Inverse folding.
């Protein structure tokens, strides 16, 4: 009886005053148009990710790509909007759903595709595959297959920036499923204790493999997850690149000015299964179709660009054609590039 009584007296997580106090500091205000140039650039960048992922899906089906392959289709506005607020020296790290993050960071589509096909000129010389690519030059630190393993590493990247006296930030992306991992909270504790410039971006696509957030999680407002450590959080429409950009501007400024870590919960959705081997039977076709037809991040910009007369349908088609050309060239390259020499098995390893 006593237990039941205590339970009844517990306030709902969202009503706890400590959650609210810190979250309010991070309120971002209304979403503004980004203007013609920026929105068209976002359109092109999102489209590049979409077409690249569609091609990777096809090549997987043809047996040209093997192993794990997790597509990012539907979530493109998140990485593209965040990238627009970054500057040289900022660090990016994520999990295994990572091709979009690499392309947004400016990594070469040919090198990414050739890594997917396991070829010599892939970013990891064909030895890493989908989940294990890096580019220190572009500030991209992987590509990690263990759920949430990137969170302590991203915290370390933020520590490095502070230790060196730089005003660079670190962006650590992880999923709604990963948000329940213990190491996330150890990282939050250290980030706040040391006031690190860490932006934690929870890509809440509502599912962790075949399990919905509601089934697996005691609380679903993931932007409150820093409350115990005094880390503010914001929930963001991750399907609207304008909202992501506004949150990115706020969060990068917050961190560069020395205010410590911040959490952005991006409300987003993946259209494809968890990985290439997932038939996605845990959700209905209608659920996916509804998001696609009402909230697609690319279609939103396309409609706005035409309404505001920033571009005609023909001009938008030209952008699409250019993007397809880049992706086709990448696929061609990744199909014809040689496989690594067997002697490569003995290089890049720690003895
Ligand atoms: C430590 C660990 N546990 C389990 C797995 C298997 N696994 C791979 S992805 C995944 C789901 C993660 O979902 P989420 O964090 O929401 O990211 P999303 O796939 O939706 O992008 C699980 C359980 C793993 N790779 N690592
Ligand atoms: Mg998820």
């Amino acid at each position: 009886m006593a237990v039941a009584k205590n339970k009844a007296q517990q306030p709902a997580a969202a009503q706890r005053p400590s959650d609210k106090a810190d979250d309010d500091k991070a309120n971002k205000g209304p979403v503004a148009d980004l203007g013609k140039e920026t929105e068209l650039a976002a359109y092109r960048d999102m489209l590049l990710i979409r077409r690249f992922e569609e091609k990777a899906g096809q090549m997987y089906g043809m047996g040209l790509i093997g192993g794990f392959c997790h597509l990012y289709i539907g979530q493109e506005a998140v990485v593209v909007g965040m990238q627009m607020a970054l500057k040289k020296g900022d660090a990016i790290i994520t999990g295994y759903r990572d091709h979009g993050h690499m392309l947004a960071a400016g990594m070469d589509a040919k090198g990414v595709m050739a890594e997917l096909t396991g070829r010599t000129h892939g970013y990891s010389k064909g030895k890493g595959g989908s989940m294990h690519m890096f580019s220190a030059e572009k500030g991209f630190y992987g590509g990690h297959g263990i759920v949430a393993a990137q969170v302590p590493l991203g915290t370390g990247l933020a520590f490095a920036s502070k230790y060196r006296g730089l005003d660079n930030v670190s962006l650590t992306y992880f999923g709604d499923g990963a948000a329940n991992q213990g190491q996330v909270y150890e990282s939050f504790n250290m980030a706040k204790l040391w006031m690190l410039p860490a932006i934690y971006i929870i890509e809440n696509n509502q599912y962790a493999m075949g399990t919905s957030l509601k089934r697996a999680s005691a609380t679903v407002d993931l932007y409150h997850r820093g409350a115990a450590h005094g880390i503010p959080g914001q929930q963001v429409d991750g399907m609207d690149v304008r909202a992501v950009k506004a949150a990115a501007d706020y969060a990068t400024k917050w961190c560069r000015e020395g205010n410590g870590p911040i959490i952005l919960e991006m409300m987003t959705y993946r259209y494809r299964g968890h990985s290439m081997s997932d038939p996605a039977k845990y959700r209905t076709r209608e659920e996916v179709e509804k998001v696609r037809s009402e909230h697609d991040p690319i279609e939103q910009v396309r409609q706005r660009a035409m309404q505001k007369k920033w571009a005609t349908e023909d001009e938008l088609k030209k952008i699409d054609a250019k993007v397809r050309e880049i992706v086709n060239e990448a696929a061609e390259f990744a199909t014809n590039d040689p496989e690594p020499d067997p002697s490569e098995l003995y290089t890049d390893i720690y003895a």
User: Anything to note?
Assistant: The mean pLDDT is 92. The two ends are 60 Å apart (CA to CA).
